[in-house]
Design a protein that fits this description.
Elements lengths: L4 H10 L9 H12 L7 H23 L31 E6 L7 E13 L30 E8 L5 E7 L3 E6 L5 E7 L2 E10 L5 H11 L4 H6 L10 E6 L9 E6 L7 E11 L2 E11 L7 H13 L3 E3 L6 H11 L4 E3 L18 E5 L10 E6 L3 H15 L13 E5 L2 E6 L11 H13 L2
Parallel strand pairs: 2-3, 2-5
Antiparallel strand pairs: 1-2, 3-4, 4-12, 5-6, 6-7, 7-11, 8-9, 9-10, 10-11, 13-14, 14-15, 15-17, 16-17
Helix pairs in contact: 7-9
């Protein structure tokens, strides 16, 4: 069996010339071989060194694109979904907070329900950027619930991105919600049983908008008003097949509130609901809440609590909206004057991030076309009063005229006041077209002066 080269070298080191089979020249060559072994070839290390930068590049690209992540990205639990909420903060099954109701039991105390939140957005894109306002505050609950409802119900807060049309409903615990605001201002929400999607709870409110919708539904769900609805030009062509329909009183809001049940549909789903209408200076409003279900829940406490909360509040509990961001009103007015605005985030480079009279600016890019362009900008300061706004303007003058020693050219903006707003207009390098939006900014601010 042949020996490895290393074995032969070891043997030669021990007895290099045993057997006298070596010539003098061969002995000299062997000694040189043993005393000065040749360097091992570094071909493998050479290849590794050449491939190392390529491997590093692949790893960087993989991590930056998320290609090496074996787990799906988790949703940000600080956000609220647009119109629907599975998986986000406030979604059914992942309550964001607890809401307490007074107990209807003789022992007293409170009943705590999980509070889920749903952000409702307009169904039609207005073309303007959406401005999300804070979740509106909730009043103290006065509607009593039995202790058994703690595990069966959830309090569902639906609020609009514009800070308006926010409301609260009771819904089955764990049901997932979606919400929408119609183009005409009407709104609604739908809750769905995740284990049986055919079971739903649907709420709708015409919100004083579609008068034909309101009048037609009044005649449909209140048969005694069908003649009146026809006189208004909205006859009931196909009456509903009620198994039960009961108006809750003879006067006041109770006379305009009804509970009803419908014949099962072709899929065997039963429907139990409540309806309310009202007449006001703007016409009529109609609100309805209907539970479609496959089980016999018509008489259980869960259904009674859901519908009872509707009846007690003449629909959903309407909430006074949180104070909307006043800057959003100005942004909308500027957009209507033709400015395409892009918000500059807190982590991005600002043109003029200076505090003036205690207020920091919200900076907007004008007609932003991408990172390779340098756009005109607006620094928008929103103050508590017109007097504070005037102080902000004086602070701006001092800041701009402050002595500097950098030797650079000064950049003087155009400044505008209107209402409680101070708008500082910065022209980008080059100045092509000059301050072309001066008139548009003045026009937008004029509306806030007239509303003071």
């Amino acid at each position: 069996m042949s020996k490895l080269p290393q074995d032969w070298e070891q043997r030669l080191k021990e007895k290099p010339f045993t057997g006298k089979h070596f010539t003098g020249q061969l002995q000299q060559n062997v000694n040189e071989r043993l005393n000065n072994p040749p360097a091992r070839k570094l071909r493998g290390w050479t290849y590794a060194a050449a491939l190392l930068p390529l491997l590093v590049l692949i790893v960087v690209i993989g991590y930056s694109s998320g290609s090496f992540s074996s787990a799906p990205a988790l949703p940000d639990h600080g956000s609220i979904a647009d119109g629907e909420n599975p998986g986000d903060a406030g979604s059914a099954g992942t309550p964001a907070a607890i809401l307490s109701f007074p107990s209807a039991d003789t022992a007293g105390g409170t009943v705590q329900l999980p509070l889920v939140t749903v952000l409702a957005r307009p169904s039609v894109d207005s073309g303007f950027p959406a401005v999300e306002n804070p979740v509106p505050p909730l009043p103290e609950m006065t509607f009593p619930l039995s202790a058994a409802m703690a595990g069966l119900l959830q309090a569902s807060l639906i609020y609009g991105a514009d800070g308006k049309d926010s409301y609260l409903l009771l819904s089955p615990a764990g049901w997932e919600a979606s919400a929408v605001i119609g183009a005409n201002g009407s709104y609604g929400a739908t809750f769905q049983d995740p284990s049986d999607p055919s079971q739903t709870l649907a709420y709708s409110d015409t919100n004083w908008s579609c008068q034909g919708c309101a009048v037609g539904n009044i005649g449909l769900y209140f048969p005694e008003q069908a003649g009146w609805a026809e006189d208004q030009g909205f006859p009931v062509y196909v009456p509903l097949e009620f198994t039960k329909q009961q108006v809750l009183g003879t006067e006041g809001a109770a006379a305009r509130t009804a509970r009803y049940a419908l014949q099962p549909d072709q899929d065997g789903l039963q429907a139990d609901g409540a309806a309310y209408y009202e007449e006001g200076s703007w016409g009529h409003v109609f609100r309805r809440l209907e539970l479609s279900h496959s089980s016999n829940t018509s008489e259980n406490d869960t259904l009674e609590s859901i519908m009872g909360f509707f009846a007690a509040n003449h629909g959903a509990m309407l909430l006074s909206g949180a104070s909307p961001d006043p800057t959003s009103d100005l942004l909308a007015a500027l957009e209507q004057q033709g400015l395409r605005l892009t918000f500059v985030g807190s982590g991005e480079e600002h043109m003029f991030n200076k505090e003036l009279a205690g207020v920091w600016p919200a900076e907007q890019l004008i007609d932003y076309e991408g990172p390779l362009t340098i756009s005109d900008r607006l620094s928008i300061y929103t103050y508590e009063s017109a007097e504070a706004c005037a102080d902000g303007l004086e602070a701006l003058k001092l800041e701009i005229n402050r002595t500097t020693y950098d030797g650079g050219a000064r950049n003087y903006p155009h400044a505008f006041r209107g209402g409680n707003f101070l708008v500082v207009y910065w022209m980008g390098p080059g100045g092509e077209g000059g301050f072309k939006y001066d008139k548009a900014i003045k026009t937008a601010l004029a509306g806030f002066n007239s509303s003071e």
